[in-house]
Specification:
The complex is a heterodimer of chains A (113) and B (113). Helix content of chain A is 0%, strand content 49%. With 113 residues, chain A is an all-beta fold. The termini of chain A are far apart. Chain B has strands spanning 3-6, 11-14, 19-21, 23-26, 32-38, 45-50, 56-59, 62-65, 75-77, 86-93, 101-103, 107-112. The chains are: A mainly beta (113), B mainly beta (113).
Chain lengths: 113, 113
């Protein structure tokens, strides 16, 4: 089966610009996650969707980050405006339901200069 | 809150050496425990998991036992190969409907011929 697809793979932007990442989860997976992985650290959950509803966004910096999952399939994560400390790899993952194995995409490496 | 602590790295071993990567956790309730691996240029993928105390997860020659009394989930392999060179992440999954993965910092393993 096809895995989790993410695009772009790499992005370089200047601080204060905006950027968007796209994720297509595995077909039929109800749960979708966005993680932020800063260099040298483990992934940190930003937001979790169950179908098209938000389950957990407690660690999402809502003043600059937003995410949506229209129709319970694809998802986009946006940063506006970006800061230097947002430089990281943004990982999307999906699972059939909560409490089951999560499958990860290859991630988008963001560099803010 | 829940947390995962991994031993400091990086780790460099010769081929066929014995591997132990330590992982301890702090959690309320009864989480599931995971080891994820990230090979160079690839996304995170599940290596093994254990869902309750005394369970042993195993895959590709790797093993880890869920030890509730010591709150540990150490990863072991009897004889490592060059192809095992990767970054290894220990993670815990909360129980309940809003489960999410909490990751450790990860440790880089390099195996030399």
């Amino acid at each position: 089966e096809a895995g989790v697809a993410q695009s772009p793979r790499y992005k370089i932007i200047e601080k204060r610009q905006s950027v968007a990442f796209w994720c297509n989860p595995i077909s039929g997976h109800a749960t979708l996650y966005w993680y932020q992985q800063i260099l040298g650290q483990g992934p940190k959950l930003l937001i979790q969707f169950q179908n098209n509803g938000v389950v957990d966004d407690s660690q999402l910096p809502k003043d600059r980050f937003s995410a949506e999952r229209l129709k319970g399939v694809d998802s986009t994560l946006k940063i506006q405006p970006a800061k230097l400390e947002d430089s990281a790899v943004y990982l999307c993952a999906s699972s059939q339901q909560t409490n089951t194995e999560a499958f990860f995409g290859q991630g988008t490496r963001l560099t803010v200069v | 809150g829940d947390s995962v602590t991994q031993m400091e790295g990086p780790v460099t071993l010769s081929e066929e050496a014995f591997l132990t990567i330590n992982c301890t956790y702090t959690a309320t309730g009864y989480p599931s425990l995971f080891w994820y691996v990230q090979y160079p240029g690839e996304g995170l993928q599940l290596l093994l998991k254990a869902t309750k105390a005394d369970d042993k997860g195993s895959n590709k020659g790797f093993e880890a036992t869920y030890r509730k009394e010591t709150t540990s989930f150490h990863l072991e392999k009897g004889s490592v190969q060059v192809s095992d060179s990767a970054v290894y992440f220990c993670a815990l999954g909360e129980t309940g409907a809003n489960s999410k993965l909490t990751f450790g910092k990860g440790i880089t393993l390099s195996v030399r011929p």
